[in-house]
Amino acid sequence: MALSLSACLPAQTGTSGSTSADGNSGAQTATRAVASASNPIVTPSFGGERVSWNNDGGGLTYRFTAIERDGEVFVCGAYGGAGRSYVSEANRELMRRSSVTVNDETVFRNLTFFYQASNKMLDTQLVGSETRCKSTGLAAGSVALEDVKVELREGRIRIRV
Asked: Residue 3, exposed/middle/buried by CB under 10 A (0-12, 13-18, 19+)?
């Protein structure tokens, strides 16, 4: 089975865009956040998207931000989804194929480290959810946090059902 997707989030997130399995990349710009000893909680200012699978109505919502911590730039994020079991598998695969870029250069691939939020958080577009963070390996101050983006990989996702 192959699934196609489309995406959007309301204007309150500070980002907009659309993603298609055969269309444009789902690049979203990270927002500035102040790092603390713990991971940030998702706020309306986080970047992100809502991805809907055309065949089922299920989908995925992800939110992210870039922060400076311990002299490095980190990406922090969360995702959640709803739908049948095969949609959950497609959501995980989409996160695995996604990447973080800075100025069109890939920093790393695979966003499955993002916190997997309960589908109960989808009503708030994950606002209030925990996040998990990963270092980009870039020194703090070497890039603008707004230049840190999440890219959804274009193409079809095939899963077995």
From this structure: buried
